[in-house]
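Long-time lurker. I teach an intro course on protein structure, and each term I like to show students one example going from raw sequence to a predicted 3D structure in token notation. This year I'd like something fresh instead of my usual example. Would anyone be willing to generate the tokens for the chain below so I can use it in lecture? Attribution to the forum is fine with me.
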Amino acid sequence: MKSMKYIWMIASLSVLVSCSDFLEERSQDTYYVTSYTDLDELLIGDCYLPVRAASKLSDTSDPGYFIHYLADEIEEQHGNIWSWDSDNKETIFGYYTWQQRVGETHNYNGYLRENATWTEIYRLLNVANNIIDCAKEVPQETDELKLEVRRVNGEAHFLRAAYYFWLVNLYGKPYEKATANSDLGVPIKTSSQVNDVIYSRNTVQEVYNQVLSDLQQAESDLSVARKVPTIYRADITAVHLLMSRVYLYMQDWEMAKKYADKVLEAKAELVDLNSLKGSFLNKSSVENIFSMGGAEIPCSMCNYYQSFRVSHDLYNAYKDNDLRKSAYWWTYDDVVGYVKMEVSSTADADPSEEDYYERKFYRAAANKKAPVSDRFLFRVAEAYLNKAEAELYLGNDGVARKALNDLCAKRYDKENPYTYDCSGETLAKAIREERRLELALEGHRWFDLRRYSVCEKYPESKQIVHDYTYYEDDTEMKERHRFVLEAFDKAYTLPIPQEVIQFNTGMPNNDRPVREHTVVSIN
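-- Reply from a regular --
Happy to contribute to a lecture. Here you go:
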């Protein structure tokens, strides 16, 4: 049995073997493939991100758990009840304050693990590679079996595309046509063959080419395969929405529009907040297209000392007639909590009481699997926003306004509606703002801020300020440090994890400044 070194650093034998070993060897540590059903079980069990219970930030097994803490959607909370587990806050410190090394400890005396997301996604990619390679060899005696193998192959290609898309948008520069062929992205490996080599970084353009190639294969396979009736398996509509997103990031407006239209032709219904009963995000929502993975957010907004809350900057951006302001968020004094996602709870709690969120969401979410993900959720609303943005940049202001207003009609009070009648740059800003409000804490904001900075149409970048407070005896605030991510800051791109750099001698890292802070008064 071969073992893999360097950037993957994985111990699981079920992942590390080549396709020939995969088909021939059998033990309690390997998966023996004889048919498409074996591949399908491997796909479900080892290639899709599992639906997890919401957990502490210190549980880094769920890729991209830190994504929400990088941008302007979350800020510190100094709560009204008791002390939160400070280890959670310390775990996120290096990301939340944009340190040169994201594993930096909050007292600057060492480093935490930095490669959890990198390692897990490459593990998933290697599973996808095995499935894709082995799909060519499993028996396909009937037309029905051929279609089933194509379905499995299509889903594996979709997942490989999704994972590379995430990696390059975390660790590579945002896609810019003029420099994508030279900007460094992430290493590409598309074979199940295990090679004892040192890996280098492919360019951003090469990674995007790979993503598109995988999505085109997924489109070909899933367009003819049967649909598995669950949001936890990718189908052709999920492929089209991801294609729309990828082309939007690449500033290929025609193709972004084309695939947004394909999504809306297949599935255009939106939840009307004017008649919403219950939580907005649930597994049976008419807007759902695809979801996988867990959700950390409900376990962060717990109204404790040393926890987090939805930022006031985000909450205050909602107009008074915007029904999302109450459908997505809960408030108590200066606390803004996350109630966007359904959480199964039998707690008898009054929303007007200070411990409502802790009882109704924090405790419940910590012990229940998330019905939908807070990072890997595909919804119809995104297709409306992708279409609006692409149409505007193509010069079709009227079509762009209609797409945006169709979404707003389901989000604002019908007795006091809000519609947009602007054009040009003003409409571009409106679309970006509605995207921020609509997709809040669903894993889009950090990536959107990155791509806006290199957009050929109305480029912009945002300064973000995060405070980090130190405590004594759990609840006594001692000192507060202020960190600033400047507009167009190089820290909008994460560093390659130090563990990866150490194993891959000569691999260049991203240029990222040392992050200074100022001490501010505690009021």
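Some talking points for your students: The longest strand covers residues 476-485. The beta strands are 74-78, 288-291, 305-310, 329-332, 335-338, 377-379, 464-472, 476-485, 518-520.
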